[in-house]
């Protein structure tokens, strides 16, 4: 890493911390409303219940401390291991229990159809105006012209490898089928990711694969090469730290965080392409603390938070001001430039019948 690049990152981080301190000093978020939830000095604390992935930005102790002090609230996190688990949580007692949750396109349309989310009033979000049009105009978070979830971050599920165990530059998705790494490969345990990845390897359209039988056979061929099918980022990180895996599917954001922490990880969007995703914040139907939920989401999409998380190794921001504050080298290193973006196949909602078919195929593969 060049001295110039390092200096730019340090300056960016200092600016972010300075902005946060300034917000704290002047009571930053108090201008967003006048109800009791804004009282940071007295009154009963509001409890905000958030469902997210573990170690994924919103549960950073510094973030929690800052937000709780600003709004005299308590943030409680409940964690999910998959999007399908989140959907189940919402369907089975989540309404009236959770305030804010983090879905993506794989479940958003059906969750909206089932009435699991409140309509979003973007006038209550000061930072919504800074979201890139590319993300604010996506269709999966909308119904009948109404918005039901707010884009937060984006990235890819591609290839990460341990550059202390791998002595070559990997640029192909076919490394997941390479006999050389037998027993040292980590494949994602998610039917959507599995089928899309196999489709990309076969040259099929991952959004609308033409031959599921070929995909099934491709996944069966991969299975004996696998060390494990992983579900959570924490599971992947532990395997990586113990050098039990050399290469595998991984999220761009987590790979960036690990690299920032000094782990010997290299992340690459393969030449054949990879899975792209957008994570959204949604206010749950009948959320107990809807006003606080809006304040939380507005902070999550702010330049201050997004820039801070990005320079700390987080995923790509949707806030245009945060991206404009990054230097080109950082953008390229994080695989969030145009070259990488153009190689991504963004997750789409396929309907319940297709989801059932894909899930059954994946379960059959794992049962082999």
Automatic annotation (TrEMBL):
GO terms for cellular component: periplasmic space. It comes from the Bacteria. It is found in: Periplasm. GO terms for molecular function: polyamine binding. One of its GO terms (biological process) is polyamine transport. Residues 1-27 form the signal peptide. InterPro entries: SBP (IPR006059), Sperm_putr-bd (IPR001188). The keyword Signal applies. The keyword Signal applies. Keywords: Periplasm, Signal, Transport. Pfam families: SBP_bac_8 (PF13416). CDD domains: PBP2_polyamine_1. This is Spermidine/putrescine transport system substrate-binding protein. It comes from Lutispora thermophila DSM 19022.
């Amino acid at each position: 890493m060049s001295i110039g690049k390092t200096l730019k990152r340090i300056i960016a981080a200092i600016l972010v911390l300075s902005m946060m301190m300034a917000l704290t000093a002047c009571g930053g978020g108090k201008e967003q409303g006048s109800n009791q939830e804004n009282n940071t000095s007295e009154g009963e604390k509001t409890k905000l219940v958030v469902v997210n992935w573990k170690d994924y930005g919103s549960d950073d102790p510094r973030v929690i401390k800052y937000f709780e002090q600003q709004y005299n609230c308590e943030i409680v996190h409940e964690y999910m291991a998959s999007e399908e688990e989140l959907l189940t949580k919402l369907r089975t007692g989540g309404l009236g229990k959770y305030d804010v949750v983090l879905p993506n396109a794989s479940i958003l349309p059906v969750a909206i159809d089932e009435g699991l989310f409140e309509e979003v009033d973007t006038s209550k979000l000061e930072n919504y105006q800074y979201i890139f049009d590319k993300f604010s105009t996506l269709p999966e978070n909308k119904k009948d012209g109404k918005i039901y979830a707010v884009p937060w971050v984006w990235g890819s599920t591609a290839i990460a490898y341990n550059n202390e165990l791998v002595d070559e530059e990997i640029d192909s998705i076919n490394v997941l089928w390479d006999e050389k790494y037998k027993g040292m490969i980590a494949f994602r345990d998610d039917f959507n990711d599995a089928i899309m990845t196999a489709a990309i390897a076969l040259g099929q359209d991952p959004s609308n694969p033409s031959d599921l039988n070929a995909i099934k056979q491709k996944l069966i061929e991969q299975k004996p090469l696998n060390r494990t099918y992983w579900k959570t980022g924490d599971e992947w990180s532990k395997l990586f730290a113990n050098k039990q895996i050399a290469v595998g599917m991984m999220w761009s954001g987590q790979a960036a965080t690990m690299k920032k922490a000094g782990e010997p990880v290299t992340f690459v969007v393969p030449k054949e392409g990879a899975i792209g995703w957008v994570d959204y914040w949604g206010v749950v139907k009948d959320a107990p603390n809807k006003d606080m939920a809006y304040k939380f989401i507005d902070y999550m999409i702010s330049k201050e938070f997004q820039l801070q998380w990005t320079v700390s190794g987080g995923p790509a921001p949707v806030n245009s001001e945060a991206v404009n504050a990054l230097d080109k080298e950082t953008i390229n290193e994080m695989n969030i430039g145009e070259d990488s973006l153009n190689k991504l196949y963004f997750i789409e909602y396929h309907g319940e019948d297709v989801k059932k078919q894909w899930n059954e195929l994946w379960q059959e593969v794992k049962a082999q």
